[in-house]
Amino acid sequence: IRRIDKDYVKYFQSKNKLMPYTWGVIRIDGCHFHKFADVHKFEKPNDEQALKLMNECAVGVLHEFREVIFSYGVSDEYSFILKRSSHLQRTHPSDIVSSVVSFFTSMYMMKWKAFFPLTDLVCQPSFDGRVVCYSSTDILRDYLSWRQVDCHINNQYNTCFWMLVKSGKSRSEAQQILKGTQSQEKMELLANNFGIDYNTIGQMLRLGSSAFWEEENGCSKVVVQHCNIIDDSFWEAHPYILA
Ligand code: DGT
Ligand code: MG
Ligand code: MG
Ligand code: MG
User: Fold this and answer.
1) What digits encode the pLDDT tens for the residues 22-51?
2) Which ligand is in closest contact with the Cα of 208?
3) The complex's ipTM?
C-alpha cells in the first residue's frame, strides 16, 4: 500500500492561493440576463427595481463576508473588494468566489418578491464569478474607474438607443444613427430630439451603485451611494476604506 504524504496532496491546493497583500476583486455577473430581463419585463434601458434588488443583495454580501470592504455594481454585475490582508488563511480562491456567488444568488431569489411584488420569478437567476488580484491601490482604483466609465458609456448609449426606438425608429435605424457618435453628440441628440438633459438622469443609472461600510460616530453600517468613484474626492472623504 502506498503511503500518502498529506503535505504532498495539499501542495496542489496551496499552489492556487491568492497573492498575499494584494487587493482581491470578485466580480459576479448575471448569466444570460438579456433573456432574464426580457422574460421578467424589466424596463428598458434601466429597471430601477432590478438595480435596487442587486444593491440589496450586495448589502447582504457585505454583512455576511466581513473581508469585503467595498463593492461597486452596475447592470447585472457587482464587484466586491477583499481587504488586502484577507487572503492569508485561505486555501483556495474558488471557495470565496463560490460562496459569494451562491449567497448572492439565493438572496436574489429570497428578495425578489419584495422588489417585484407583481411579477412571478419564472426562470432561475444565476451568476458567474471570478477573482482577480490587483497588486497596488492605484491599479485597484483604475479597475473601479474602468467599471464606472463602462457604466457611463453603456448608459448613455442605451438611453439614446431606447429613446430612438420608443419614438418609432427600428432597432437597426437607431443603431445606424448612433454609430460612431461621441459622448457630446449623444448629449445633444437627447437634448435636441427629446428635451432630455443627460445630467439630470438618476444618479444610480449614470454612476452605478457603491455599497460599503461607512464609519460614523464610532458606529459602522453598510450604505449604498451613487457617487463618482473615479475622482480622488470620494477616496479622500473615506480614507479608511483602502487604508
Ligand atoms: P452573459 O453575462 O454573457 O451571460 O450574458 P448577459 O445577457 O447577462 O449579458 P451582459 O452581462 O453583457 O449584459 C447584461 C444584460 O442584462 C444586458 O443585455 C441587458 C440586461 N439588463 C441588465 N440590467 C437591465 C435592466 O435594468 N433593464 C433591462 N431591460 N435589461 C437589463
Ligand atoms: Mg457573464
Ligand atoms: Mg451578464
Ligand atoms: Mg453584465
Assistant:
1) 899 999 999 999 999 999 999 999 999 999
2) 1
3) 0.96
